[in-house]
Amino acid sequence: SGLVKLGIHCVTCQKVAIKIVNREKLSESVLMKVEREIAILKLIEHPHVLKLHEVYENKKYLYLVLEHVSGGELFDYLVKKGRLTPKEARKFFRQIISALDFCHSHSICHRDLKPENLLLDEKNNIRIADFGMASLQVGDSLLETSCGSPHYACPEVIRGEKYDGRKADAWSCGVILFALLVGALPFDDDNLRNLLEKVKLGVFHMPHFIPPDCQNLLRGMIEVDPAKRLTVRHWRDPTAGKNEPEPEQPVPRKVVVRTLASAEEIDPDVLESMNSLGCFRDKEKLTSDLLSADHNQEKMIYFLLLDRKERYPSHEDQNLPPRNEIADPPRKRVDSPMLSRHAKRRPERKSMEVLTVTEGGSPVPVRRAIDMATHGQSGVCVSVCLCPFTCRPAAVCFHRSRSISGASSGLSTSPLSSPRVTPLPSPRGSPLPTPKGTPAHTPKDSP
């Protein structure tokens, strides 16, 4: 996995999280996944999505410069506070939905939404992170790879069926909203096989203290039948405009989709980024679609990536002498994923590994990663100047400090989703009890 360090710009003093990925220690398939995640993050610029500033690299390492947020994970926030007030839960949920709707409008499905992948800034605003399982879903196509975390995965994913990634994300959002309001998960069991059966049935207890509008929303999103499931785009907030803060909206990007005259006009760096997304494997068809006079999804994605490249150009001078006596200093990437350094072909992803069980029906033992900052261990923060325009030699300084919390969730390098599937405790520290007089929510088609 990658190492995350706190970076401080030598000129602006801006703090960033630098994800350092050792190419030599990772398999080709994992490196391809990192490149796909980088390409996806370039498509997303939203206030509630963790921002990828830029990418530096040398022969051995990738340096992913990410937005630094200091509030940690929403998971830890929930464990500390227990169930949230409806007002606070709605605030978080609105921000999640706003960012997710933006992703879906750009054909991006996250596929691993959970509180561990939702970070908080210093003002307790959401940042969706870890797009390692994300995928582009173009048009009416369906996704096939079963991935995600068992507690948050929808029934059709668990059954190994083809599925709509947007509706899978909607189910996960429903589970997250339940966790925010209740302080526990709607589906839980010590035995993983039993847990998966509970998810497939879709039967869960609806506590009486959940507001009626939230109960209706939960029933609509945690719906076994994907055809009846409420999607993010069709959700309407009944409390909008009632003295509650609205989520921050992204600045509109005016990207002109025009007709390309010839194949020579296609930017090769952007084309490589599109190939790394995984859904444009046929280069000849992709080139044909880009040269088409029609406005299609391929051209929209191409010009979005081209727009980002033009707005964040590389001014790296390849003739600069090594800085700080470093033999191979990192150079700013010119938006090309340089896939040829990793592999000639795109390997297939393994499916359903995250949902495996032992012969006895017990889950494969997994442990949630220990947060060093929580336990007071010291880490090393690095102040690295990556800008070639400094008026003085670039400096690297080391000082003892706490490890940054939450930054490691910014970009995943694991071939599976995070193993942190520890169920959220209820305020009493035990599985969620069924309040007296509270009926279980049972799907209409269930026996």
UniProtKB/TrEMBL annotation:
Mind telling me which SUPFAM superfamilies this protein's record contains?
Answer: Protein kinase-like (PK-like) (SSF56112)
According to the UniProt entry, which residue ranges have a biased composition of type Low complexity? Answer: 406-419
Alphabetized, the UniProt keywords read: ATP-binding, Kinase, Magnesium, Metal-binding, Neurogenesis, Nucleotide-binding, Serine/threonine-protein kinase, Transferase
What this protein catalyses is: L-seryl-[tau protein] + ATP = O-phospho-L-seryl-[tau protein] + ADP + H(+); L-threonyl-[protein] + ATP = O-phospho-L-threonyl-[protein] + ADP + H(+); L-threonyl-[tau protein] + ATP = O-phospho-L-threonyl-[tau protein] + ADP + H(+); L-seryl-[protein] + ATP = O-phospho-L-seryl-[protein] + ADP + H(+)
What the entry lists under PROSITE patterns is as follows:
PROTEIN_KINASE_DOM, PROTEIN_KINASE_ST
Q: Where is the composition biased (Pro residues)?
A: 422-436
Q: Name it.
A: BR serine/threonine kinase 2
What species was this sequence derived from?
Answer: Tetraodon nigroviridis
